[in-house]
Amino acid sequence: MIVEIYPQSTLYVLGIKSFCNAAFFNAAYSNNVRESKQLFLHMGIIMRIVSLLPSATEIICSLGFADSLVGVSHECDYPAEVLGLPKVTTSLIPEAASSKEIDALVRERLKTSKALYSLNQSVLEKLKPDLIITQALCDVCAVAEEEVREVVCKLPGTPQVINLAPMTLAQVFESMLQVGRAVGKEEHANTVVIAYQKRVDDVVLRSKKMVKNPRVVFLEWLDPPFCSGHWTPELIAMAGGIELIGRSGQPSRTLEWREVADAKPEMLFIAACGFNVERTMQDLPVLDKVMTQKEFASLKPDKVFVADGSQYFNRPGPRLVDSLEILAHAIDPIVHPLPSYLQPATKVNK
Hints:
By secondary structure, this protein is α/β, with parallel strands linked by helices.
């Protein structure tokens, strides 16, 4: 039985109009997938891409391949043109769950090796992707790698799977190049990355003009508190701050509030993973309770900031550069003016 990998409209582009030729073409594609993909790319045929995480979706769109996306995860909400695409994942986390309840659920799932997200195989089959982009960085953030590979084996045409697992900003840029190579546009991807690197370099250069480098604690969760990790500590250093707890290239970890107090931060920056500013504000009573203690005397009330941790900081994609600029502006708004297209972090006590 011949499975039609490419629709008739695509085959017409190649001048393959008869059923027999189309069947042969699709069979050849199935028998020699990787080589055929490179041929299609060379001929300008648009690939069919499914992204299983928001950062990958943003990478694809930043490289100019939004039209190639045929499916995304339920969390992919940027840029706007992806909102109407079919969703291939669902979450097992209740929408009304508190931060503490989410944390407990995540810990329990990790103990049992059960995923927090599920993959809709029937939707994937209908989408007929050539390329699926997922991640192997965080067990909490997306569908488990094992489930992805198990489902892919059942799909027609055996799509190529790319796993992105960046731990640093440089590795995020390399992920962009990796996606560029997969779609046959590495040179273009390199040009895009150079432009983002220029913005990073500009921030680093301005930071050298700072008179004082504030002591910063960056929190990725409030109940319980989690320190920063992966790329965030280096963003803080680039922005002119001194991260007191988180370590570059290392995962974030659970903290006790005592550890935060003992670090004697002069600035607290909060970007809760998966939460916008409004949702994060709901957890601020937890912070208010501990900040009344004398151990937090080093932290001035007007140096507590909240940023959108869903859109920024926690997505290892191109908008980490936006995140850097938002963070730098919060650290020193005079040295680091904020680009007009970005919103500043919210100051908790003005």
